[in-house]
Amino acid sequence: MADTNNSPKTTKRMKLSTLILGIVLPLTIIGIIVFAVFKIKNIFYTVTLDSTVTQADIDNYVDSYDVMVPLTDENGYLIRQEVKKIVVFGNYPFAADADSADGMAALLANATGAEIINCAIEGTKIGCTSTQLPSYGEPMDVYTPYYLTALMSYKDEIYDEFIKCSDLLGENKPANADAVVKTLYELDPSDIDVFVYMYDSEDYWVTQRCVDSYDKYSLDTVCGNILCAFRMIKLKYKNNRIIFMSPYYNLYENEDGTMETCEFHIGLHGAPSTYFFQVGDAINTSTDASFVDNLYGSITEDNYAPYLSDNRHLTQAGRQKLIDRLVYAIQYFDAKE
To answer: Could you tell me if 224 and 212 are in contact, meaning their C-beta atoms sit under 8 angstroms apart?
Structure first.
């Protein structure tokens, strides 16, 4: 039998393979070298940074936990609002100088052109003190978000409770409480475009319970009270936006008069950040409300100096700062497609 290993065809194939190998192998090596060079250059690429940080940079920097929720129709399409009426529930921030041109309600009206119905009551908080009806437990509980929202939404079903609590409180009743009750009783919520809830850190200061692990709708918790209020609105008035403005940064005054962050002073139910994250999580997971972060995105530990007159009260610049953030939330979807 003939030896085929040295046949012309075999020899031709070997020469061709050697030729290809001689071309491909050097190209492959060159490719690897080029790739490695570019890779090394990218690793050691020098970036020149502008290390100058001004106070304006700090004041204007926003790194927040905002969650903006739009109004949508049954098909998920964005509903654009013409905001004509805004009702505000809250305590100190909107209640202070309520009838003044320097008050937050006036600032909000100027910024939006909308009618502002200011139902903030100073000295109130979010969570109820008692688990009983206010007239049987703590009369001031009737001015928490749940009961005020119930008065607006269900009128006669709850109105008598407000009358009873008003009589029980007597001279201890907040100055504008009766006016707010009258306003909400006469208000048609279907005319309202945006519901705003803005409370300061009063619940932290009085160590109000924030959350109930067994009942997320418990009215004697901050989370439960606000969730119940929002549920009432959405059950009856689906074409309205709800915006929750979180508390802003506060300072703690020590016995020697020195100030430091409240984060170092954890109450029975946590530090301000504990309240912030628990309330934010409850709202974001259980409601269709927008959450505006003021603790890290508005008046913060880094920029509070021009915005607070003491440990917790706002300067005029502080009021304007919060209004700017609220207007940002109200108008957030105006330019969205």
So the answer is: yes
Q: Is the dihedral of CA 224, 225, 228, 230 positive or negative?
A: negative
Separation CA 132–CA 135 (nearest Å): 8
Distance CA 128, CA 157 (A): 19
- How far is the CA of 322 from the CAs of 105, 184, 290, in angstroms? 11, 24, 15
How many residues are recorded in the chain? 337
Using CA atoms, how far apart are residues 330 and 111, in angstroms rounded to an integer? 11
Q: How many CB atoms lie within 10 A of CB 193?
A: 19
**Measured distance CA(91)–CA(125) in Å, rounded:** 7
Read off the pLDDT of residues 137-176 as tens digits, 9 standing for 90 and up: 999 999 999 999 999 999 999 999 999 999 999 999 999 9
Helix and strand numbers (H, E) in the chain are 11, 7
**d(Cα 111, Cα 32) in Å, to the nearest integer?**
61
Contact of 92 with 122, CB cutoff 8 Å: yes
Q: 222, 210 in Cβ contact below 8 A? A: yes
- DSSP letter for 58, please: H
User: What pTM does this model have?
Assistant: 0.81
Q: Based on the number of CB atoms within 10 Å of its own CB, is 219 exposed (0-12), middle (13-18) or buried (19 or more)?
A: buried
DSSP 140: G
Number of Cβ within a 10 Å radius of residue 291: 24
Beta bridge partners of 252: 260
- φ, ψ of residue 72 to 5 degrees: the values are -135, 155
Q: Cα–Cα distance between 137 and 132 in angstroms, integer?
A: 5
**pLDDT attached to residue 47:** 46
Q: DSSP string of 91-129? A: SHHHHTTTTSTTSHHHHHHHHH--EEEEEE-TT--SS-S
